Amino acid sequence: MKQPTPLQLREAVEAALRDGDVTPGTYTWPGGAQTPALYTGDPPEGVTVTGLEVLIPATPDSDVISTFAGAITIDRYPIRAVAHDGQSLTPFFTALASAFRSVAAPQVLQATDRYPDQILVTITP
Fold this sequence. Notes:
With 125 residues, the protein is an alpha+beta fold. The protein is built from two helices and ten strands, in the order αβββββββαβββ.
């Protein structure tokens, strides 16, 4: 099975959120430009965020399974959602669960100085 490129994965996550009526928050870049708070990797220093931030890893976690026919690699993507405005993260999980073939139970991450309430949802496209 062909794995998605980072751009294809981002587009699939964006479509899943749109279909689930989940609206990402807003990034404000140095200079004032604003974009949806949906990013592959970590946003650069100086970018501020409001609302729901969705962070997609640039590279997947991989499992290699040995079979009689040879090795099979299954890529998993731990997608992090951060509620900078205190909103519920349940709709985010529900949107991903309805769009991808395999979605692990969400892992709640403890709030830090940089990140408030957040969850990690691992998907297999």
